[in-house]
Amino acid sequence: MKRICVVTTCRADYGYLCFIMKDIDASLNLQLQIIAPYNHHNRSEIWTEFIQNGEACGECTNEINSIDDFGTFYTECLQSMRTLQPDTVLCLGDRWEMLAAATAALLLNITIAHLHGGEATTGSFDNEVRNSITQMATYHFAATKPYAKNIYKLTGSPHTYNVGSPGLDWLTRSKLLSKDELQQRISITLNQPFIIACLHPVTKELERTEQYAKNWIEALYQTHEPVIFIQPNIDPENDIIRKVIKESFYSYDPDITNNWCVFDNLDHLTYLSLLQYAELMVGNSSSGIIESPSFGIPSISVGNRQDGRIKGYNTFTCPCETEAILDAIDRAREWNGLIGKCDNPYGSGNSSKKIVEILEDVL
Q1: Is residue 26 exposed (0-12), middle (13-18) or buried (19+ Cβ within 10 Å)?
Q2: What are phi and psi of 317, to 5 degrees?
Q3: What sections of the chain are H helices per DSSP?
Q4: Which of 155, 133, 113, 130 shows the shortest CA–CA distance to 306?
Q5: How far apart are CA 361 and CA 363, in angstroms?
Q6: Which uninterrupted H or E stretch holds 197?
Q7: Three-state DSSP class for 88?
Q8: Which of 168, 257, 331, 355 has its CA 20 to 30 A from that of 143?
Q9: Domain 2-165+347-362: which CATH number of 3.40.50.920, 3.40.50.2000, 3.40.1550.10, 3.30.70.270
C-alpha cells in the first residue's frame, strides 16, 4: 500500500480535504497518514474519525497562530515525515503553512500532490506561495480546465488533472442542515434576509488594512440588515480586522448591531448550510468565489485579494470603498431577482473520488 500523508492545518482546508481523507482511508491500495497542528479546529473530529481507527498521525505539539510559526511548523513537518515515511504528501492551495509542509517534503525527497494550483490571486502573497508549491509538486489537481492549463504552462507536468474543487463534495455527499437546525447554532433569527461577511487581510496592501475594514463595516451597517461575521484567517494584520469588528459593536446603533453575530470559525457543513438561506456574501474570502455559485447566492468580492480568480456570474467585484460596496450590493440584488442560480465553474461535487482514483492509478 502506498502511504499518502495529508497535511491539514485548520478548519478551512479540512473542509476541502475531508472527503479525500475518507476516500483514501477506504482505499485498498492507499494508506492514510495525517499531519495537523495541535490547535487544529477539527482536532477531536480527526482523532475520532481517523486516528482511533489506526491511521498514522504526525500531530505537531505546537500551535499555528501567525507567520512567526512558519519555522516551527516546518521543523515539526520534517520530524513527522521522517517518522511516517510517506510515499506522497498531499497539500492544498496557497496558505503559507502549506508552503512549510511542502518545503519539508521537497527536502526529504518525498513526492508532492497539490490541490487548487494554477489559480491567481494577485492581491495577496498567496499567489507566490501557491506557485511555489506547484513548482515543487509532481501531481497536480486543478479546480478548472484553465487552471490545469496554467499548471501545465508553469511545470510541463504530464500529471496535471482537472478534477474540480473538492470543497463542493459536501453538496453531494452530506445533508445540509435545515433552517431549524441552524437556528439552534445561530443567535440571530434566520427568518429574515441576512448577510454572510468575511474579510481577510490584503497581504500586498497591509498598510490599508484598517481603512479597508472600516469601509467594509460601514457598508454592512448601512444595509441595516442582520450580518453573520466570520473572523479573518491568520494572515498578517488579521488582528486589526478583528479589532474593527469588535469596536463596531460599540460604536454603531445597537438596534442594528444586535442583529449581528461573530464566529471565529464555522465548520464546513454549518457554513455551507447557511449559504442556502443567506441573501448575500460580502467580503474577500475564496468561498465567495468557489462555493457561492452552487447556491445562486450573490457574492460581493471587495478589493484586490481575489483578483485573477475565475468567477461565476453571481460574483460582483468592487473596490473596498463603502459606496462602491453598496453599489455592488444593489447590482447583486437586482441580478438575484432576475436570474437566480448559475453554473459553478468549479465543478459539481465529485472531486474527491476522482483525486483518489488518480492517486491509486499513478502511484
Answers
A1: exposed
A2: -100, 150
A3: 11-26, 43-49, 70-84, 96-107, 126-136, 145-155, 170-173, 179-183, 209-223, 238-251, 254-257, 268-275, 287-290, 322-338, 351-362
A4: 130
A5: 6
A6: strand 195-198
A7: strand
A8: 331
A9: 3.40.50.2000
Of 110, 94, 98, 106, nearest to 73 by C-alpha is 98
Residue span(s) of the chain under CATH 3.40.50.2000 come to 2-165+347-362, 179-338
In the block, cell 474519525 appears at 49
Comparing CA positions, the residue from 26, 116, 18 lying closest to residue 347 is: 116
Hey, what amino acid is at 99?
A: L
Name the β-bridge partners of 204: none
Closest residue by Cα to residue 21 from 349, 350, 359, 356? 356
Structure-block grid coordinates of residue 199: 474579510
CA gap 115, 164 in Å, rounded: 10
Letter for the amino acid at 253?
A: D
Among 283, 275, 199, 287, smallest CA distance to 16 is for 287
Q: Which residue type occupies 230?
A: I
Predicted confidence (pLDDT) at residue 222 exceeds the cutoff of 90: yes
Class of domain 179-338: alpha beta
Q: Which amino acid is at 295?
A: F
- Could you report the per-residue pLDDT of 224-243, keeping only the tens digit for each? 999 999 999 999 999 999 99
Nearest to 294 by CA among 333, 344, 329, 223: 344
Q: How buried is 206 (Cβ within 10 angstroms: 0-12 exposed, 13-18 middle, 19+ buried)?
A: middle
What is residue 141's three-state secondary structure?
strand
Residue type, 302: V
161-208, pLDDT tens digit by residue? 999 999 999 999 999 999 999 999 999 999 999 999 999 999 999 999
3-class secondary-structure state, position 50: coil
